[in-house]
Amino acid sequence: LNIGLCYNNHEGSSAEIIRNKNRFFINLHGINGYSLVEITIKNKKLSFKFENKIYLFEKVLDDFPYGADSGLGIQYITNKILLGGKKFSCVDISSNIIFNETGLVENFKYFENYNIATDFVTDPEPRDWISLKNASEEVFFHYKFIGEKLLLYEYDEIKEDFELQYTLLMEPHTAPQSINN
User: Fold this and answer.
1) Cβ(153)–Cβ(127) under 8 Å?
2) What does the alpha-carbon distance between residue 57 and residue 63 come to, in Å, rounded to a whole number?
3) For the chain, what is the largest distance between any 2 Cα atoms, rounded to a whole number of angstroms?
4) Helices (H) and strands (E) in the chain, counts
5) Long-range contact list for 152-157, CB < 8 A, 24+ apart?
6) pTM recorded for the entire structure
7) What is the pLDDT of residues 48-76, one digit of tens each?
8) Tell me: the pLDDT tens digits for 113-142?
9) CA distance 78 to 118
10) Sequential DSSP letters for 20-61
11) Contacts from 11-17 at CB under 8 Å and sequence distance 24+?
């Protein structure tokens, strides 16, 4: 079984999972060439140790259409960790803005979907960006989390500076979780 891998949200590769009796191994390319590493199962989680780091497998989608963009998995995990299921309020807009794991946004102006950059190549300053869109328009913002706030900035090319457009306040019971949850 071949699986896709992503090393740093940009460069990727693939690996092979091999079954030998009741044990599973993954064949990975690392610093010292290829290594056959055993996959362990503990508390219904798959993991392996490679070059002194532990890696966890995470099931992303129940079905993956043939020929679909393999970046969907990375996008889903990014959405889940940063915004998925979290509720925000924004003065003069809404008190019930919701972002879900699949990229839908509710109650935030006229936007229907969002996309968080997972290639992490940005404009003049190294700030991450998010796009918000509907059927006819897509608007790009740089974002920054400060405590319970999500700040959305637009870059003004004339002023060569970032201008704060929206401050979204996260509802306390939906605060971000650890990447290991």
Assistant:
1) yes
2) 16
3) 64
4) 1, 14
5) 153/127, 155/123, 155/124
6) 0.60
7) 887 788 877 766 555 555 555 555 667 77
8) 998 876 655 455 556 788 899 999 999 898
9) 7
10) ETTEEEEEEEETTEEEEEEEEEETTEEEEEETTEEEE-----
11) 12/70
**Any idea what DSSP says for residue 104?**
B
Strands across the sheet containing 149-156: 105-106, 94-99, 86-90, 161-170, 149-156, 138-146, 129-133, 113-116
Residues in the chain: 181
Contact 129, 143 (CB under 8 A): yes
Residue where the block lists tokens 């091999």: 18
* Amino acid sitting at position 73: G
End-to-end Cα, the chain, rounded Å: 27
3-state secondary structure of 83: coil
What does the alpha-carbon distance between residue 110 and residue 135 come to, in Å, rounded to a whole number? 10
Amino acid at 71: G
